[in-house]
Amino acid sequence: MDDYDAQPDRKPPPGPELSPAQLQADELDLNAGLSGLAGLIAGACGVDEMLGQVAQFAVQAIPGADGAGVTLIHPDDTGSEGELRIQAWSVTAEFVRVIDTLQYERLGEGPCITCIQSGRPAVTGSLGSDRRWSHFGGSVARMGVHSALALPLTVGDRVVGAINSYAHGKDAFTEHAVQLGSQFAGPAAVSVYNTQLLANTQLRTTQLQQALRSRAVIDQAIGIIRSRTGATAAEAFDRLTRISQREHIKLADVAEQLVDEAVRRARARQQ
User: Fold this and answer.
1) pLDDT given for residue 42 in this prediction
2) For residues 47 and 121, which has the higher predicted lDDT (pLDDT)?
3) CB-based contacts of 45, cutoff 8 Å, min separation 6
4) Is 41's pLDDT higher than 70?
5) Predicted confidence (pLDDT) at residue 82 exceeds the cutoff of 60
6) Would you give the DSSP letter of residue 269?
7) Where are the beta strands (DSSP E) in the chain?
8) In this structure, which long-range contacts are made by residues 17-23, counting pairs with CB atoms below 8 Å and at least 24 apart in sequence?
């Protein structure tokens, strides 16, 4: 497998040849992780919980991983230009949270950001000497974490996020690990994307419902003002707008207060 970004100018020492038993064990772990993904149902849990479960399965599926995180970028962010906008991320261990906080919030560099921008896995076996992320790599190496494997989560031709795996030892992620990790990342991307899509759809539906309710209340308030003053609809709306600006209150809240006041007066007259 050659389609990944390895650490420049570093040739990892040759590792021991994997025995048939070890290869079989790694395949079983991968299949267990994939089976776990298959059991996840979009909408059955929130985005954060889904990302956390995918991260747990990633640690199981990727040989050499001591911890992992799954990151989701905003749906309108291609990740190719400018600052990366993170929508959500979840990790399996506290040391991964510290590392990714450093990557996203303080330095703006690291294997996850690189792999999202390139759409290719990024591998490093000695973070402290990796010139791609001079600030990030040195800081993480001082934490005792030396290897990283970042895998893009790709749906079609679009990168929606990444899986970040870390290990304390050097050269922990071999080409074999990259291959198995990539096999896991494909289905993981679909699970994460479906959850993101459903969550965003639910959010837009909620916002639309709120907007419709607000519009209904505003229309009611306009009707009340017109019945009291004989104003036109435009004049009544302008009055609501002026009150909103003067009192620094949302237009819908001004309208709701006016409608509530009218209802209280009507009930008082009936008593």
Assistant:
1) 57
2) 121
3) 53, 195
4) no
5) no
6) H
7) 67-73, 86-91, 122-124, 147-155, 158-167
8) 18/176
pTM: 0.71
Q: How would you class 246 by CB atoms within 10 Å of its CB: exposed for 0-12, middle for 13-18, buried for 19 or more?
A: exposed
Which pair of structure tokens corresponds to residue 54?
């995918």
Mean pLDDT for the chain? 84
CB environment 116-149: b (16+ within 10 A), e (fewer): bbbebbbbbbbbebbebbeebbebbbeeebbbbb
d(CA 189, CA 192) in angstroms, rounded, equals 5
Domains of the chain and CATH, by start: 20-198 (3.30.450.40), 202-270 (1.10.10.10)
Which of these, 179, 190, 114, 194, lies nearest to 154 by C-alpha position? 190
Give the separation between CA 182 and CA 4, rounded to whole angstroms: 10
- Tokens 């290869």 label which residue? 23
Tell me the percentage of the chain whose pLDDT exceeds 90.
34
